[in-house]
Amino acid sequence: MSGWIKLHRQIQDNTLWLSDEPFDCRSAWIDLIMMANHESREIFMNNNFITIERGQLHRSQLKLAERWHWSRERVNNYLKNLKKAGMIDFTASTNGTTRGTTITIVNYDKYQVDHSADLTTNPTTDRQQTIQQADNKPDINKNIKNVKEGKEGKKDIYSSSISQIFDYLNQKTGKKYTGRSDAQRKQIIARLKEGYTVEEFKQVIDNKCREWKHDEKMQMYLRPETLFSTKFETYLNDTETERQRARREEAEIHERQQKDLEETISYCDIETLFG
User: Fewer Cβ close by (within 10 Å): the C or N end of the chain?
Assistant: First the structure.
């Protein structure tokens, strides 16, 4: 069997793809290909910029284990087997408190051909485009309508992801963002176009809620304009220090005690009224 197919990265946001069912070896391999960068970019880790090239991804084996519903040992063995088969190369790295594995998809371009190159080298695609252009020429109004519908369709491909992101943000912060703000949507779409997934947006929300939610001065920054700005990658790679963890746990205990006290007072008031 020869030839190839294309898979849109948005398939990774589908509930069927990220269900509670464990991945098998085949779907995990496809997942690695889709998570790999389609172009090189830098990530910021512990005051250092690290370049992740096209065809590479940087993930911890723990995150892969959580994503695939595997044990860490199975992830490690799976990556070793892929490397032995010549399908990937990977190096585990430790940078201060940040740990991760840089995975390189061998012969990445065989799986993800550049779209612009594909159009110029695929005779079938060229022939289909020529026929489509010829069909559209007689009717100018129809052509204009198709352009408008094309723009709307392009916008719609992000709607599901944006909705999931705002639902999760509201759930974690207790706020009521609607997701209708053009400025907020543009920020999210910009990050999605850079290759970030909905799961990575959720990770940023989790990271900053953990750090800011119990801080009166920082609570106000748990908003889309701050979380999804150009500092997104920095927030994604933030890790919790022991001191921050202790402060967070202390704040959570205090919050639970305060809630228990309020419930006790409310119960006593009812006893007074109806006792």
Answer: N
Buried b (16+ CB within 10 A) or exposed e, 37-59: beeeeebebeeeebebebbbbbb
H or E element: which one contains 103? Answer: strand 98-105
Question: Are 100 and 64 in contact, with CB atoms under 8 Å apart?
Answer: no
Region 9-109: CATH code = 1.10.10.10
The domains of the chain are located at: 9-109, 159-239
Rounded CA separation 87/132 (Å)? 38
Instruction: For residues 30 and 158, give the distance between their C-alpha atoms in angstroms, rounded to a whole number.
Output: 22
Question: 20 in helix, strand or coil?
Answer: coil
Tens of pLDDT, residue by residue over 107-151, are 888 777 654 444 444 544 544 554 455 455 445 454 445 544 444
Q: Which of 78, 58, 6, 29 is nearest to 200 (CA)?
A: 58
Report pLDDT for 127: 46
Decide which of 177 and 264 is more confident.
177
CA-based nearest residue to 178, from 150, 159, 193, 194: 159
The Cα 118–Cα 4 span in angstroms is 12
Q: Is the pTM of this model over 0.70?
A: no
Q: What phi, psi does 90 have (nearest 5°)?
A: -150, 150
